[in-house]
Design a protein that fits this description.
two-stranded antiparallel sheet; DegT/StrS_aminotransferase; dTDP-3-amino-3,4,6-trideoxy-alpha-D-glucose transaminase; Aspartate Aminotransferase, domain 1
Amino acid sequence: MVVTNDEELAKRIKLLRAHGSNVKYHHSMIGHNSRLDELQAAILRVKFKYIEQWNNKRRDKANAYNELLKGLDIVTPTELAENKHVYHMYVVQSYKRDEIISYLKEHGIATGIYYPVPVHLQEVYKPLNYKLGDLPVAEDACTKTFALPLYPELTDEQQKYVTSYIKEFFKHNK
């Protein structure tokens, strides 16, 4: 805990604890994820015994999405044999991202864009003199990645609902 009457120091501390960001996904300094208080820590301590079970459910849901999205113009995440992805998010890629998101929203399906600005173009890295075009793969990824709903309690029916509208979108938008 930090207590101060210095407004500038308070602003800087708030930036530091929120990844160096005061506007979501726009970073003016290098920071940390330090927003865990004692109450949240106590809750997490209880929840921690379920983490493996929840991660397994997420992996199962991700595998189901991979199967349900096969054959569509959408790139699904891959998992190397020697690694174990926990699918905190299920992030896919499509050049039609914005249209897909809009279409899904019309049908009550929430999605998320988590990294709209490439790291090298963040304010905090301006002194490195990167400019648009310097890292084209990262810049391209930021225009086509988005996350589909994924959580341990997601039902098979809900996944089929989500993917049915993605399939419908591609049927009408080739």
